[in-house]
Amino acid sequence: MDYSTLTEMFLQVTGKYGDKVLYYEKKDDRWEGLRGKDIRDIVEDLAYALRSLGIAKGTQAAVLSMNSPRWAMSDYAILCAGATTVAVYPVLPAPQVAFILKHSSTSLVFVQNEEQGAKVLEIWDDCPELKTVVVMNGAELSGPAPNPDSQRIMTFMDALELGHKYAQENGLDFEAMCKEPQPADLLTLIYTSGTTGEPKGVMLTHNNLVTNIEAALTHIQIDADDSLLSFLPLAHSFERMAGHFLAFSRGAAVYYAESIEKVAANLQETSPTVLLGAPRFYEKVYNRVMESVGNSPALRQKIFWWAIRQGKAVSKFTQNGDQPGGWLAWKYGLASKLVFSKLQARVGGRIRFFVSGAAPLSAEIAEFFAAAGMVILEGYGLTETSPALTVNKLEKFKYGKVGPAIPGIEMKIADNGEILARGPNIMQGYFKDEAATAEAIDDDGWFHTGDIGAFDEDGHLQITDRIKNIIVTSGGKNIAPAALENALVIQPHIEQVCVIGDQRNFVSALIVPTYDSLQIYAQERGLEISGNKELIEHPEIVALVEKEVEQAMAAFARYEQVRKIVLLPQEFTIDGGELTPTLKVKRQVVLARYSDMIENIYSGTIADAPAN
Asked: Which contiguous run of DSSP H or E holds residue 536?
């Protein structure tokens, strides 16, 4: 297919795959599908409705919802109307939603349900340009629009009827509408979920996304025979580009997960061939497997680790596009039958490959999955780069590295180690923020990523950490906390970590333990413990986690090693303000919230971990 805008792509895909089911959604315990021509009919009427409501070029309409076919179709309808989509994370509290809707001058918002609609009703008076709310699931909101004379609430079906009628009365031509947007037109505003300060609205054009899709497809092969399970937020640039636009461009089927909690069950029900996930997903799968193995009989454990050794030996071939032969091939076949087939069944049994993005992935986890016959292709990018900059390839991938640059993108390392990028995928700037734009993109067009990294002899990039996260100890040692945190979170009883030590004389860590597994551990040993607070204060539990810290730190230089830890009584959460919607730890929030504990660490109140 040949297209220069995503609206042209939409026309071509729905024409070519009109009779193929492209979207699936679970309703009443059944997965129901929408064919290409069904999707086109809905998007067409919805786009007409938007036009009738004044949504056209130069205006913004937002989507505030969990992933669903209606999210995807609302996005295409906004684009086909010639407008710009503002993608809003559904987990954001009302004040943050208000900031985005007001800052973006949004005039219409699609909300998933009554819960999301309630947020908008709460902040509507703070968003003077917001005129219309469309409720996607047809629910009645608990209150009217603040000013019924100029503001309107309607259901998704109401909008379709409005659009159909408007088109008949005005003789609109959908194909002509879809050809109006130009490559340089603003396609979307995606607000960064930055760990510091107010979010910034990243401006991406049709050309930014189209060129990024085409370039990414040279490293990641997806076609009409593939299917995906969508569960990363569509407001995130990674899922939006790859799981939404790229998958659709190839005619691949997309199943929309019911919720994060049901991803494991949905994987087995839908058996996708490709899965996009953040490192946290792979960490959880890995930890569940390790926990299960640890609770298995000795013989089963011995078979498991024998199989992993065969898998790791085979992966040395597959990393370079080769296949083993002879005795190793036979042993791997047996390992697959005894162990790996069962692991693969947990994710549906048909995975061709995984893709990981949004944060660094532990090399140990990547090697484990590859050994089990499920390669994770790690990539790197930012919202500001549409997002892909680098991606590993199935025929050439490396653990702990994010692959070579995709075609059309220039990359280099600045004198201070910062990764710089230039190409057709680089954003147009930050919406209404010329100063921040000038700071991010220099006069030569290089985008400053804020990340530190290096390229190896094969052109594969390795990310060290964010510049702003680098710890400089009082002794002048530079330490990247991401590497330490990646080593810690794969331990059986460690769930979340924030490594600290900037301007201090040693490194320490705030640790959220895995409460469920620790409760089981305590029960098996007859420990009388009630609640998380008692759990993390019990000497035997503390000693267990300290031992895992010791094991995780063994591979690091002494000055890098975590010397003291504090176990926290509750998880870092989005609602609590410690996590961004993309599950990155807001370091400054955590440091402020637990400042007393941190001072106790460095005042000597908390003893050194035995490991150090």
From this structure: helix 531-537
Give 290 or 102, the one with higher predicted confidence.
102
Buried b (16+ CB within 10 A) or exposed e, 4-43: ebbbbbbbbbbeebeebbbbbbbeeeeeeebbbebbbbbb
Are 190 and 84 in contact by the 8 Å Cβ rule? The answer is no
Which of 54, 20, 55 lies closest to 39, judged by CA?
20
- Coil, helix or strand for 302? helix
pLDDT tens-digit series, residues 174-231: 999 999 999 999 999 999 865 556 789 999 999 999 999 999 999 999 999 999 999 9
State yes or no: pLDDT of 517 exceeds 90: no
Contact call for residues 203 and 428 (beta carbons, < 8 A): yes
Confidence grade of residue 526 (pLDDT, cut at 50, 70, 90): confident
Residue 609 has pLDDT above 50, yes or no: no
Contacts of 32 (CB under 8 A, 6+ apart): 24, 25, 26
Residue at token pair 């791997």? 332
CATH class of 6-261: alpha beta
pLDDT averaged over the chain?
A: 92
The residue extents of the domains of the chain are 6-261, 276-421+449-466, 470-603
Nearest to 366 by CA among 293, 283, 292, 289: 283
Phi, psi of 225, rounded to the nearest 5 degrees = -85, -10
- The pTM score is 0.90
Q: What is the pLDDT of residue 603?
A: 84
* CATH number attached to the domain at 470-603: 3.30.300.30
Distance from chain centroid for Cα 433: 25
C-alpha–C-alpha distance, residues 576 and 579, integer Å: 8
**Shared fold status for 6-261 and 470-603:** no
E strand or H helix at 48? helix 36-52
Nearest residue to 200 via CA among 374, 420, 382: 382
In angstroms, the CA 289 to CA 409 distance is: 38
For residue 393, give the DSSP letter.
B
Give dist(CA 446, CA 298) in Å, integer.
55
Helix residue ranges, H only, 295-388: 298-318, 326-335, 341-345, 363-371
